[in-house]
Amino acid sequence: MKKIISVIIPAYNEELKIQRVLRTLESIDAITNIFVIDDGSTDKTYRKVLKFKKVHLIKLPKNRGKGEALRIGIKNNIESADIIVFLDADIICDANEISELLIPLESNKVDVTVAKFSSKKAKAGIGLTKQLAKIGLYMTTNMHFGSILSGQRAFKKEVLKNISFISNGFSVELEMLIEILRLQYVVKEVEIPMTHSETGRDLAGFLHRGKQFAHIAHMLVFKYLLKLHKNKEVL
Q: What is the pTM of this model?
């Protein structure tokens, strides 16, 4: 029996980029549903999405953050889908690259796949954030993982049913990975040549990376303190 595959794309002010990924997704026969969660965009993102007949649009009245957009997407797909895929709205990819994320799940070899992009020289702000995420992951799970912050992921529906995450901002990928590893699901990194728009080295870019760093730090403090509290209860 053919598995039902749903794709969820959280989008905020992506009118210039979102059409690329939607064209690719509509060309993939294996994908059953495509959901775009317009997270309170102030540009014409929703108008670009409406041009695609196969795409379901959920437009939020105000910006709630990536985590909330993903939760809304999950809620609308968790009962019907067998596999749920997360993609960023600014991703540049082709059909084969998305299929590479799906193959291990369709063969039941793993529970979650995460896209590992081709290695590039990391910019200073991004490098610091990734290091914080790696340290935080080890502190909370005693495990190492490469593409911690990758937003391109595919899940068996059971995984998303059994984990919970409260992050709304840029820490959502890390928090989800912590919960997935704690529950001992099998996660596989899939190296594929996807690319996405990178944050620049101007003031806006540094502010963006600083916000990302702050969101991750705040979430990790909460998670680490919770882990310490649970360890005390056991003792």
A: 0.89
- 90-99 pLDDT, tens digit per residue, is 999 889 999 9
β-bridge partners, 111: none
Amino acid at residue number 194 = M
Q: Are 160 and 76 in contact (CB under 8 A)?
A: no
Task: For residue 56, give the nearest of 14, 7, 91, 95 by alpha carbon.
Answer: 7
Fold for domain 5-120+147-198?
Spore Coat Polysaccharide Biosynthesis Protein SpsA; Chain A (3.90.550)
Q: Please state the domain extents for the chain.
A: 5-120+147-198
- Output b/e per residue, 25-62; b: 16+ Cβ within 10 A: beebeebbbbbbbbbbbeeebbebbeebeebbbbebee
